[in-house]
Design a protein that fits this description.
Layout (H helix, E strand, L loop, with lengths): L2 E18 L5 E20 L4 E5 L13 H12 L6 E6 L10 H16 L7 H10 L3 H6 L3 E5 L3 E4 L5 E7 L6 H6 L12 H5 L11 H9 L6 H7 L2 H10 L4 E6 L6 E5 L2 H14 L4 E7 L1
Parallel strand pairs: 3-4
Antiparallel strand pairs: 1-2, 2-4, 2-5, 5-6, 7-9, 7-10, 8-9
Helix pairs in contact: 1-2, 1-3
Length: about 290
Amino acid sequence: MPLVEEGRAKVNLTLRVVGRRVDGYHDLESLVAFADCGDRLALAPGPELKLDTTGPLAGDCGDVADNLVLRAALLLAEHVPGLKLGEFTLDKMLPVAAGIGGGSADAAAALRLLARLNDLALDDPRLLEVALLTGADVPVCLVSRASGITGVGETLSPLALPKMPCVLVNPRVAVATKDVFAGLGLRNGELLVGATDILQSPAWPEDGASLEDWVEALAENSNDLEAPAMRIQPVIAEVLSALNATNGAWLARMSGSGATCFAIYENTVEARRASQKIRLDHPQWWIHAGVLS
């Protein structure tokens, strides 16, 4: 029987770009939650490493050789002598280049599957090192739970979020992360915020705080990539407008580097109604009503 893992969609509730390091990577500060939708990855143990893609969005995956699932597996094989591998089957449900970490979630699912197959602990330092080498979002997708992130994705602080009824909308346009970061125009070694701002990280609500408390705290922050992403794909503004126009939308914002946007609602009934309205008006968009946690 194949081993199976879910690659849940990652949503950046906030995202601040602190600056660009001398090595060219960007230092970030972000609060990440995970949605109740995702890709499904199966692993059938075998002598050869392979990847097949299926599902409604398999055609958007591009060249299989470039897929992060294979990249993660090959990197782990370099770090773990004698690593048992096999054939992966990816059931692709999430849009690609969408700001919700689809590829990163798939790579993280691959690492969890290989850890299970090879009796590796999820906190094995080799697994964590490979996750970061594969991509900045892979470490948080590996644990797949709400976290605060700093640095280039390597420092995680688990957070206890209340369940957040939400609607996710992607207008089915791809946005290249590198282009969005380039739109910030930061030189290597340049800070986007002042030194005093860096010291004042967001103070998130205590454990057990209400959804309303969290939405108020989130509203005091933002996503620094929203403006440059909107310049690249103006349709993002249309998505945010559609979400804001629904009844009961408490907060609407873009996730990651876009183009997926989300809105938070008081309850799942309002979220479902909002998704139905947007789907009627924009049948070509990818839409999911569910819960962030």
